[in-house]
Amino acid sequence: MALFRRSDPVVPPSVPTAGPPTPGAKKTRPTPTRKEAEAARRQRVTQTLTKKESRAMASQQNRSERMKALNQREATPEKALMRDYVDARFSLGEILLPSLVVVLALSFLSSIWPAVTSVSVVLMYAMILAVLFDGFLLWRGFKKVLAERLPRSSTRGLLMYGMNRAIQIRRFRMPRPRIKRGEVY
């Protein structure tokens, strides 16, 4: 008597399942028995991977999660416009990091050439001020473009977003620049 248990399955067990069913779609096979579900769970949990394979798999999962979160965060039209605006122009911020590395290297020579070190420190502060002024010009120009293209959109967070992108070396910007320098965005 099969009152509370499953009788013969309608679909043979050799039919592969295609992951979780979509809402509203018909099932392709009967609900798995407890024994089948536990066996499938054990198989997922007890995969035997080498350390190298498990590290590679974890790294791939982390990267895909980070990229998904980055794409969600960067998807607003205001940020896309800011990215294109920054990428279309040359920014002094792009050479800030390499120049700071040179100043750091010159600061190690303070015992040999103290004058060179003090001049390099003054140049470093001048460079930082020039980058801030360039950021001011960038923001002023971007607000005009934003008002033309996307009226009534918020500028909240875009100044720091634009400055962070402007001081990064172009090759290392994420997401990658879509347009070349000088192109119309």
Question: Could you explain the architecture of this structure?
Answer:
With 185 residues, the protein is mostly helical. Helices cover 56% and strands 0% of the residues. The protein contains 6 helices and no strands. α3 runs parallel beside α6. It is elongated, with a radius of gyration of 29 Å. The N and C termini lie far apart (73 Å).
Descriptive terms for the model:
185 residues; mainly alpha; 6 helices
Secondary structure class reads mainly alpha
Distance linking N and C termini? 73 Å
Rg, rounded, reads 29 Å
Poorly predicted spans: none
- Please indicate the percent range of residues in DSSP E strands (runs of 2 or more): under 5%
Number of strands: 0
- Morphology call: elongated
The helical percent reads 55-70%
Give average pLDDT, whole number.
Answer: 86
Query: How many H/I helices?
Result: 6
Short précis:
This protein has about 180 residues and is mainly α. It has helices at about 35-45, 50-75, 75-85, 95-105, 115-150, 160-165. The protein contains six helices and no strands.
Protein topology:
Layout: H1 34-45, H2 51-73, H3 77-87, H4 96-107, H5 114-149, H6 158-166
Helix pairs in contact: 3-6, 4-5
